[in-house]
Every structure is written in structure tokens, then in C-alpha cells.
Amino acid sequence: MAAQSLTYTNPALRLSEARQTSGRVRWRSPSNIALVKYWGKHGRQLPRNPSISLTLEQAATFTDIVFSPRNGSATATGICLNFRFEGIDHHPFEDRVQRFLEALLPVFPFLAELDLHISSRNTFPHSSGIASSASSMSALALALCDMERLLFGWAGTEKDFLIKASYIARLGSGSACRSVFPTAALWGRWNELPDSSDLYAIPCEEQIHPDLAYMHDTILLVDQGPKSVSSRAGHHLMEGNPFAPARYDQARERLETLWKAMKTGDMDTFGQITEAEALTLHALMMTSMPPYMLLKPNTLAILEAVKNFRASEKIPVYCTLDAGPNVHVLFPDVCKTPVMAFIESELAPYCQQKRWIADSVGKGPTRLDHA
Ligand code: DP6
């Protein structure tokens, strides 16, 4: 594939060429947690540095698209959409989905000839403070690519299909492009992996040591409210951050070290880099102009408690953070019993309503029955 020039634009994909004109596609797609973070972007959703993530299992979005030849009236820009989120018609997310679909018309011109009924729901509470754009945009991208496959056939391999879905997901939300692959994915051009690209993520499952492929990720819900600064605004602020150039070099160096650790199962190095990346992400927010902070006192208390528990019990348990105050606690399956006991007794009190989500590294998205 001619990686950097790939656009998938295809004006021939019109309904007059399709095998059928109505149908239904349904997908479940998970969220992911970045280890080396994507923070800073340019152009049309292109990352300033490569990132790598673990695909989650439980935190996921279900997306269902029912389509039929256009009967309703389109917007001025061509999409006729009825969007329902968690049972609510014309949910506020509708605008974002509408704009996303409009931007995709050069890739999927047939969307302008259809009435689209899209409904979506998350497996995790919408108010939990868990970022849902990775799961929701990847589920939507997979469903759209599946529509194309249903209507026009697909000459490529299954991997090509997922790469295209990753490309489409990226246009909706950068981190979403990593969610289409099982276990782990890397997004962003990186010299060590010739297949890597800024345009889509690539699968890493085969290279990852089994100890990491069966990790748990317990997400501690420190604060379930909306974030004061969105990720979109955060990426934008990186453009004026004086530490940005050094950060992008650092991300590449860390990726190199982390990649070796992930291949060999070197837990100590994996944990060291993962925790450093989490703090760097938040340090970048604090050094933006205007500076801001998404960490809460209980976030810091958890980070400290995990560090002490790891030192005293000699158990490989590590933390990472998204762009928010909730803490992802990562540990191998063999340590599940003592770590879960520790979380329940020592860490749950730091969580809002003592809530957490018991997640783990997962097997990637699933195509659901279309009946
Ligand atoms: C901190 O993917 O949410 O989670 O591309 O603007 O939608 P947009 O941003 P988004 O940023 C995620 C940032 C992060 C790190 C990561 O997932 O790599």
C-alpha cells in the first residue's frame, strides 16, 4: 500500500453501481489506552509523534446503521441522518457525526444517496468520565466500511479492510484509529516498523509478549464529570508549547525502549515508560499557555499508593492516565488476586462512589449479526 499518499477517494461508489440499496450493519468496537501518548497533531488529524496502545475489552461502543435509498431531505451538504445515542433521538453527538459523515463524502459518495439511521450505545456509563471517542468513532468507521463492502464488495484482505477502517476512524478521532486491532496497535510513522503510517494504525498483536497480551486494566473513576478542557483543545495548545519539539523526540525514544520491553515481556521497563508517559502528558497540559490541570488530589493519592504497593509487595502493577483524572491500573493476570484485593481495600475510597471498571486487554472489534 502506498502508505503516505493513501486517501481512498473513489467517486465511482454510487448507488447505481451497488449490489443492493438498503441493509443494516452492526459493530462493537472497544476503547484503547495509550502507553506512549498521542498529544499534538497537525493537518487533517495527523499525529506529531507515533503512539502505541493496548486495546481494551469491556469499555466499548455498539453502533448500528440501517440504510435505504434517500427519501428524506438532506442537509445542504448532503447527509440525511437520524442519529440516536443511548436511546435519545437527535442526541447532541449528532452534530459531530453529521460533520464527520459530510467530510467522508469523497471516500463514500454513496452516503449522499441514502437515508441513514444510526444508533449507538456504550457499555460504560456515559457519565463515567471515560473518553468514548476511540470506541465510538472506531465502531462507526467499521460500520461504514462494512456498508461499502456490502454494497460494492471488497477486493482486499481482511487486514486491508481493518486498515481502511483505521484510516476512517482517525479522521473522526485520532486515538480511535488504534481501536480496530486486537491486543495492541501502533499509529504514526516510525522508522523501526516500515508498515507504520501517520494515516492509520497497524496491528502489533503478533509482536507482543503474552504477559502483556493478558494484562488487566482496572479503570479507577476518580471524577466522572466532563473535562474542563477537551482533548481537541489540548492538542491545539501543543502548537504553542515551548517543550513540544523535545516532547516529540522523547516520544520516539520512549517508543523504542517500550517496544523492546513489550516484545520481551520486560515488565519493569514497560511500567517505567508507561508511568513516565502518563505524567509527561499531564505535564504538557500544565506547561501549555494557558496552563491547565486535569489531575485531582485523589489521582495523585492513587499514583502514590500504587507505587508504594509495588515496592512493598514486589508486584508489577503500574498506572497510566488518559487526558483526565481517572487512573488506569495495569497488571498481569497472575497478579490479579492480590491487586484486586488492594484496589478494593485501598484504592476504591479514592474513587467517586467507589466506582471502577474492571477491564483488560481485548480481542478487538466484532462484527455483529446483521439480521
Ligand atoms: C491523551 O484521540 O481524543 O488519549 O484526535 O482530537 O479526537 P482527537 O483527540 P483524541 O486524543 C487522545 C489523546 C490521549 C492519548 C492517546 O490516546 O494517545
End-to-end Cα distance, whole Å, is 34 Å
Q: What molecules are bound to this protein?
A: ligand DP6
Shape: globular
Rounded to an integer in angstroms, the radius of gyration calculated over CA atoms is 21 Å
The helix/strand series, from N terminus to C terminus, equals: EEEEEEHEHHEEHEHHHHEEHEE
Which structural class fits the helix and strand makeup? alpha+beta
Low-confidence stretches: 1-5
Helix content: 25-40%
- Proportion of β residues? 15-25%
How many separate helices?
Answer: 9
Task: Please state the average pLDDT score.
Answer: 94
Report the strand count: 14
Main sheet overview: 8 strands, mixed
Describe the fold and architecture:
The protein has helices at 93-103, 133-152, 158-172, 210-213, 231-237, 244-264, 267-286, 297-313, 336-347, and strands spanning 23-36, 41-42, 46-47, 51-69, 80-85, 88-89, 114-122, 184-187, 201-203, 215-220, 318-321, 327-332, 356-360, 366-367. With 371 residues, the chain is an alpha+beta fold. The strands form three sheets. Strands 1, 4, 5, 6, 7, 8, 9 and 14 form an eight-stranded mixed beta sheet that branches. The chain has a four-stranded antiparallel beta sheet with strand order 11-12-10-13. A hairpin with a 3-residue loop joins strand 2 and strand 3 (46-47). Helix 6 (244-264) packs antiparallel against helix 7 (267-286). The radius of gyration is 21 Å and the shape is globular. Bound molecules: ligand DP6.
